[in-house]
Amino acid sequence: MRASDLKVLELLDFRAADGVIAFHDQRMLLYDADVLGILRRELVETVGPRVARGLLTRFGYADGYRDAQTLKKLFRWESQEEWCKAGLVLHALEGKALAVKTRLSGLTGNGALEAEIRWENCYETEQHLRHLGPATEPVCWKLAGYVSGYFSACLGDEIYFVETDCCATGHGCCRAVGKRRSDWGADLEPHLEYFKVASVQDEIARLERALRQQRLAVSRQKREAERWKSLAQHLQGPQAPVAKSRAMRDVLELAERVAATDTTVLLGGESGTGKELVARYIHERSRRAKGPFVAINCGALPEPLLESELFGHMRGSFTGAVADKKGLFEEAGRGTLLLDEIAEAPPAIQVKLLRALQEREIRRVGATISVRVDVRVLAASNRDLEQAVARGEFRRDLYYRLNVINIVIPPLRDRREDIISLARLFLERHAAAQGKEIRAISAEALDLLTGYAWPGNVRELQNVIERAVVLGARDRITVADLPPALRERGASPALGDLTGPLSLQELERRAILAALERHHGSRTRTAKALGISLHTLWRKLKVYEGDAQRRP
Fold first, then answer.
1. Is 266 in contact with 405 (CB distance < 8 Å)?
2. What pLDDT is recorded for position 520?
3. 514-540: average pLDDT
4. pLDDT digits over 441-483, tens only?
């Protein structure tokens, strides 16, 4: 999970019938910012600015500490840095302020932490100026407390942020610097009294105990969905493939470059990865975009019918041919023809395809003259055509003619950054198609979706979301709406079934491979998560690789 993937409607559970807004297991409240501004003024005028600052700083600290704990429970973060950044995204979603620039270093290990955050639209400065006027010292007390509490929870250390610049004192933006307590030295002393961390953490522990008891009562309440506003207007025009992952962005960058030419492109990748969508992407960005885009599955038709569909036929050329018919090479004139599952084309069809590509002309079934065609040809296959050539199942000359540019669509398990965006896109489409008021996916369901291996790739994800929309009875998709197989295997598929007798070595092997999958193949992050050296991890993986090769 990345910080940028957070979406407020998926974090909050609105239970209008119960008068409850929940953020996982925390009850949330909505307040008018002016009310908090009046409270600030009352505190300053009643107990003085020093005591008021301490109260609001500790209030913010507890708020940030709790948010960090909740986000840790909800998601498996891609890295500790993403977990830290999530706090800045979250307080923007909550309306506190917008972090416009951040600098974070030294988050891991025992090195010095150097953090700097710049905010705009901070509600504290807005309210302070409105109710108390300009200040001589920074006034974002709650916000400084919030990031201090949040980062302390994330890093398991005493982290303090001190505001150095503030809009209330005339600066262009609000700026805070964060360090570990051990790195601040004497510079922290004037600010430390406002935190009183020990008492804050004790109070948080007490609230946690009370919250556990409250959950028992809340779990018995009826949860009814609050109807939200109608879905925003759907995207119009061509829909580009979702590409938040580096792997998919590389695919689209290459597709963009080849789109401007008429070069033949061979699209590879597992079934369900979106090869036809990438083919459409190429067509829509080519000079043939105003022409038709026509696709045919070469494995779905028997040879005579496939030949007729591709090249057309003349009247009387076979039983049932009652009229002349254009083939797809002609129908796609000035446009693009996608030959899907090209590996399944029979040998005789392969010969005719080669001629069509080389000579730019085809001959209808039963015709005596050839017809010139002006069409760009794209081909797709979920099989390895090079191996098919080696086995004698596919013509070598046709393979080379098709494989001028080769684009391989990565499987969904290798582009996990795209899963959340794809799931939201499919939710929007299917909810509109089914007339359902389902607006979001719960955080727990999102975490399960991102942890699943997706053997069926994007097509499987789309089917899962469609099923959840059809069966869903609430305003969001929950874990209960997902297929049982996904719920059972999504959390840690690499561990497999642990119910049988396993040796300690086998348990270790499965745990290491599961950690490697959780960290998307990053050996550095996997080694850190397991608490072992990178060399040790490398050595064990080499052993596992050798074992796999020796197995029959």
1. yes
2. 62
3. 76
4. 988 888 889 888 898 999 999 999 999 999 988 888 988 899 8
Helices (H) and strands (E) in the chain, counts: 23, 18
Encoded tokens for 281: 């992407």
Q: Which domain holds residue 365?
A: 262-410
Evaluate whether 407 touches 266 at the Cβ level (below 8 Å): yes
Does one domain contain both 177 and 46? yes
Nearest Cα to Cα of residue 143 among 53, 81, 228? 53
**Residue 371, φ and ψ in degrees, nearest 5:** -120, 130
What residues form DSSP beta bridges with 177? 116, 162
Find tokens 């829509």 and name the residue: 284
Partners of 296 in beta bridges: 339
What's the distance, CA 253 to chain centroid? Answer: 19
CATH number at 375 reads 3.40.50.300
**Mind giving me the DSSP string for 16-55?**
GGGTEEEETTEEE----HHHHHHHHHHHHHHH-HHHHHHH
For the chain, percent of residues with pLDDT exceeding 90: 48
Radius of gyration of the chain (CA): 30
Interatomic CA distance for residues 72 and 470, integer angstroms: 31
DSSP per position, 445-456: HHHHHHHS--TT
Whether 240 maps to a domain, the answer reads no
Q: Cα separation of 504 and 356, whole Å?
A: 61
Q: Are 56 and 141 in contact (CB under 8 A)?
A: yes
Residues 302, 351: one domain? yes
Are residues 369 and 343 located together in one domain of the fold?
yes
CB 99 within 8 A of CB 88: yes
Task: Give the relative orientation of helices 197-218 and 49-74 as an angle to the nearest 10 degrees.
Answer: 50
Within a domain: 400: yes
Query: What is d(CA 448, CA 519) in angstroms, rounded to the nearest whole number?
Result: 15
> Please, which pLDDT band fits residue 117 given cuts at 50, 70 and 90?
very high
Q: Do residues 145 and 284 both lie within one domain?
A: no
